Amino acid sequence: MTANRPGGRTARVRAAVLRAAGDVLAEQGFGHLDLADVARRAVVGKTTVYRRWGTVAGLVADLLAEMAEESLPRTETGSLLGDLTANARLVRDTLADPRQGALFKAVIAAATGDEHTARALHRFYEVRVAEWAPCVRQAIERGEVPAGTDPHEVVRAVSAPLYYRLLTTAGPLDEAAADRAARAAVAAAVAGAYVGWEP
């Protein structure tokens, strides 16, 4: 996907607009995201923004696509616990970041009432889960978890408690929480909790 991106001025304009959109989402939430304001912040012509993205939902979809592409690749440590701990810490670092955490809260809130944003958010997570699923497949091959374990469900099980803490508590999202989430997902996978999910 990245190889097909335009370069030069077009790439600079896209980067500036997406950065400005992310700033507004993090600072003020989805309800205050306005294409004209984003254009002003990005020092880009309004016409350019309206022509390229058309709607706020279209802009958010592109922002999520960019975030999925720019996310760090998976880590391979040689063990499922090591791999999923790396995944959990990456998710934790993202959600604990003041800007990124606020941005995700805003997008998740928007997705509950806007179908276009919900689809974009689902695609974002599909990309990220697919990136880490091979870690579980490798664990199956090594005999760490039972055959038939659904890799996607295991990866989702790692990040789910971290998002839950982000959205439901005011407490810090620390590394201990990330490590605990990884250990719990591995224990459940080893026990066969995710066998038979994958079609």
Commentary on this structure:
- InterPro entries: Homeodomain-like_sf, HTH-type_TetR-like_transc_reg, HTH_TetR, Tet_transcr_reg_TetR-rel_C_sf, TetR_C.
- Pfam families: TetR_C_11 (PF16859), TetR_N (PF00440).
- This is TetR/AcrR family transcriptional regulator C-terminal ligand-binding domain-containing protein.
- The chain is mainly α.
- The protein has 2 domains: about 1-55, Homeodomain-like (Arc Repressor Mutant, subunit A); about 70-190, Tetracycline Repressor, domain 2 (Orthogonal Bundle), CATH 1.10.357.
- The protein is built from 9 helices and no strands.
- The protein has helices at about 10-30, 35-40, 45-55, 55-70, 80-95, 100-110, 115-140, 150-170, 175-190.
- Helix 6 (about 100-110) packs across helix 7 and helix 7 packs across helix 8 (about 150-170).
- It starts with 7 loop residues before the first helix and ends in a 9-residue tail after the last helix.
- Mean pLDDT is about 90; it is low at about 1-5.
- Outline, from the CA principal axes? elongated
- Poorly predicted regions: 1-5
Order of helices and strands: HHHHHHHHH
CATH homologous superfamily placement of the largest domain: Tetracycline Repressor, domain 2
Which CATH-level-2 architecture of the largest domain?
Answer: Orthogonal Bundle
Rg calculated over all Cα atoms: 19 Å
In whole angstroms, how far apart are the ends? 27 Å
Largest sheet: none
* pLDDT averaged residue by residue: 89
Strand content: under 5%
CATH topology-level fold name of the largest domain: Tetracycline Repressor, domain 2
Helix content: over 70%
Structural class: mainly alpha
Overall number of domains: 2
Specify the CATH class of the largest domain.
Mainly Alpha
The count of helical stretches stands at 9
- Total DSSP E strands: 0
